[in-house]
Structure formats: structure tokens, C-alpha cells
Automatic annotation (TrEMBL), chain A:
Annotated Thioredoxin domain residues: 10-142
InterPro entries xrefs: Thioredoxin-like_sf, Thioredoxin_domain
Species of origin: Actinokineospora fastidiosa
Name this polypeptide is given: Thiol reductase thioredoxin
Pfam families: Thioredoxin (PF00085)
TrEMBL record, chain B:
Keyword Protease tagged: no
Domain (DUF4395): residue spans on this chain: 5-134
Swiss-Prot/TrEMBL keywords: Membrane, Transmembrane, Transmembrane helix
Record organism: Actinokineospora fastidiosa
Chain ranges passing through the membrane: 12-32, 38-61, 82-102, 108-132
Protein name as catalogued: Membrane protein
InterPro entries: DUF4395, MFS_trans_sf
Length: 149, 144
């Protein structure tokens, strides 16, 4: 009897957590001040990955053990190719827990949009929603980007 | 590149795993949990293609679904099966050694994770990989 109640409890908690994760996943969130956290500025890995010629670089943090990272990679690479002023980079965090800590990345994929100086604009956990992400970045991108979908 | 598995296979396995774990909790019969631990071990060590649920999926479920080009990497699935194995072993020891609270707690956690995967396609074991990695690498870098 107790066991049945425990099973029911586990299912209810998991369902609630699942709905919460689903609601949050892929949504655009405010950027964290990861660059200003210490005097060193943005991590060297981020500075090396970003495209200095692009107004915005989408820095995707992935791990080997992550299926949605592959979906995110395909989506963001396509988005960057179609959108002027937008670049995409992928950083594998599998063996870099220190970088994960500095960028405050708890789960993958997490996509951090940065300006050419490496300052964080916004971030998305999970597979980003294409239109929502573009809308949030529109004012940072060159004007013709708004003509494209 | 024929590597990778149909992502619906692991979802089916997650439903089957959830059902087994519910049965374990309701009956408290630890040999069933030990059997589930063995299934997790096969999935973690040999990979999901060797899971005993895979032939069931291929024979019963896959023919009713449309073929898909989508493929999923094996590595995250194997890692998640390994996490499941750890919980199933802890639960089995709990039940078998007369600590049913430990048995139930470990089984309930495994059930919650399996159900999240089955119903939402969210792989908890895969997602917390970073967290586990961070905790096991405490000595990396100085305190900041």
C-alpha cells in the first residue's frame, strides 16, 4: 500500500517537473553578467569562439551526452547562415567543468548570445524557439535582418 | 553513417521501465528490481541496441510507426542507463537487506527519471551530466 502511494507520488512529481521544464525550455531569458563576474572578463574560450565581425554570436554550450544539442546545432547553424550579422559557435563542455561554472551553465544545450566584446545579451536553455530568439535579437542585428524570417 | 538509434525506441524502453518500477514499488518484490538493474547494465555497457526491450519495439511498435530518418546518439542513452543502474542497485540492496525505505526511495527516484523520459522526452541523467561532472571535478581551478 505504501509502495503504491510512493509510486503515485513519484509519477505526480515527475509530471509536474516535466510540465515546468517544457514551459521553460527554449524560452529566451535575460543574460547573466558572466563577463563582469571577475576582472578577467569573458572566458578566453568564448572570446576565441565568437565572430568579431558579427553583431551577435550565438555561443552554444554542448556536451557529448546530449541529444537536443544536435538539434540545437542544426537549428542555430541554419539561422546564422540565413541571418546577416549573426554567427554561431559551439563549445563542448564535456571536459571543461570550470568553464561551465564561469558561464553558469547548469544544463545543455544552453545558448548564450554575446556581442563582439563577449558581453552576454541573453541566454536560452534547451532547443531555442527560432522566432522568439530572432525577435529578441532583432534590435542588435543589422536592419535587413528584420526582412527575413 | 548508420550509427545512432531511432529515438522512439528509447522512449518505448522508458515506458516499459516505468511500468516495471511501478510494479516493484507496489509489490516490494526485490528480485524484479534486480532484474531491472541487469537490464540497465546491459543498456549501459553494451548499448541500447542490446536492450531486451529493443526486439519488442522492433517487432510490435516500430511496424506501426512511420519510418524516420531521425537518429539519436547512443552515448547519452548509455550514460542515462548507467544512472538508472546505480539507483536500481541501491534500491535492490535496500529491499534485500531489510531497509525498505532506502529501497522505495531509490526506486521512486528511478521511476521519476524514467517517467520524465517516457512522457516528456526529457533525459534527466543526460541533463545533469554537467552537474555531476562539476561535483566530481571540485579540484579543477582555484576558488573564484
Amino acid at each position: 500500500m505504501t509502495g503504491a502511494l510512493v509510486a503515485l507520488g513519484a509519477l505526480v512529481v515527475a509530471a509536474a517537473a516535466g510540465l515546468l521544464i517544457k514551459a521553460r525550455s527554449g524560452r529566451v531569458r535575460a543574460g547573466r553578467d558572466t563577463a563582469g563576474r571577475d576582472a578577467a572578463g569573458p572566458p578566453a574560450e568564448v572570446l576565441a569562439a565568437l565572430d568579431p565581425a558579427a553583431a551577435v554570436t550565438l555561443v552554444q554550450f554542448s556536451t557529448t551526452f546530449c541529444a537536443p544539442c544536435r538539434h540545437t546545432r542544426v537549428l542555430l547553424a541554419d539561422l546564422a547562415e540565413r541571418t546577416p550579422g549573426l554567427a554561431h559557435a559551439d563549445i563542448d563542455l564535456t571536459d571543461r567543468p570550470e568553464l561551465a561554472r564561469r558561464m553558469a551553465v547548469l544544463r545543455t544545450p544552453t545558448t548564450v548570445a554575446v556581442d563582439p566584446a563577449g558581453a552576454e545579451i541573453l541566454r536560452v536553455s534547451g532547443v531555442p524557439r527560432r522566432d522568439e530568439l530572432l525577435a529578441a535579437l532583432r534590435e542588435r542585428l543589422p536592419a535587413q535582418a528584420s526582412d527575413l524570417r | 553513417m548508420p550509427t545512432g538509434v531511432d529515438p522512439r525506441g528509447p522512449r518505448f524502453t522508458a515506458w516499459a521501465t516505468s511500468a516495471v518500477l511501478v510494479a516493484v514499488l507496489v509489490t516490494g518484490w526485490w528480485p524484479l528490481l534486480a532484474a531491472q538493474a541487469a537490464v540497465f547494465a546491459v543498456g549501459a555497457i553494451l548499448g541500447p541496441r542490446f536492450s531486451p526491450w529493443t526486439p519488442v519495439f522492433r517487432a510490435v511498435v516500430a511496424p506501426r510507426l512511420r519510418p524516420t530518418e531521425e537518429r539519436e546518439d547512443e552515448a547519452p542513452l548509455r550514460f542515462a542507463q548507467g544512472v538508472g543502474l546505480a539507483f536500481a542497485l541501491a534500491g535492490t540492496l535496500g529491499y534485500a537487506l531489510g531497509a525498505p525505505v532506502l529501497g522505495m526511495a531509490a526506486t521512486a527516484l528511478a521511476l521519476a527519471a524514467a517517467f520524465l523520459n517516457a512522457a516528456f522526452g526529457f533525459c534527466l541523467g543526460c541533463q545533469v551530466y554537467l552537474l555531476i561532472n562539476r561535483l566530481s571535478n571540485k579540484e579543477v581551478g582555484t576558488a573564484r
